[in-house]
Specification:
This protein is of the alpha+beta class. The chain has eight helices and four strands; from the N terminus they run ααααααααββββ. The protein has a two-stranded antiparallel ribbon with strand order 1-4. It has a two-stranded antiparallel ribbon with strand order 2-3. A hairpin with a 3-residue loop joins strand 2 and strand 3. The protein is globular and about 30 Å long. The two termini are about 25 Å apart.
């Protein structure tokens, strides 16, 4: 199982997952997840329900999750959460097996979100190449500033 994929998948859902149980949060999380497939929110909730007790019990992990929820591009928070999740999964083989099973079920939901890209390019005469999804390729030359979604 790839911790980076797990964390990348969960990151956009963290603002909603950290507040699961609040009615407004449920609706917002589900609505957000629809952009990545019908089961994305349910998949994120299922994964998080297994990980949350461990995360909540470790202040470093909980702080990293909260920071990542507030700043999804925070590389330090993402790395800290990845290290903490890896530690939890290495220590608890049952949890590892359950998370691996959940990630394999409907894996296309995870792949769709993880393979979605968002880049901001600044400057002139940049050459950009991206591969996303099923071998799709986008190659171009950017003049000026651009955002690619």
């Amino acid at each position: 199982m790839d911790i980076v994929t797990l964390t990348t998948f969960l990151t956009p859902f963290l603002p909603y997952l950290l507040k699961v149980g609040e009615k407004a949060t449920e609706g917002a999380g589900k609505k957000f997840g629809e952009g990545f497939g019908a089961n994305a929110w349910e998949k994120a909730k299922a994964l998080w329900s297994k990980l949350q007790p461990k995360v909540d019990a470790k202040p470093m992990a909980k702080g990293a999750a909260e920071e990542l929820a507030n700043s999804p591009n925070d590389a330090d928070a993402k790395e800290t959460l990845q290290k903490q999740l890896k530690k939890f999964l290495d220590e608890d083989k049952n949890l590892y097996a359950e998370i691996a099973r959940l990630m394999q079920e409907d894996s296309e939901v995870i792949s769709k979100l993880v393979n979605t890209f968002n880049q901001t390019i600044s400057g002139d005469d940049n050459v950009v190449q991206n591969i996303a999804g099923d071998g799709n390729k986008a190659i171009g030359k950017v003049g000026g500033d651009a955002t690619i979604n």
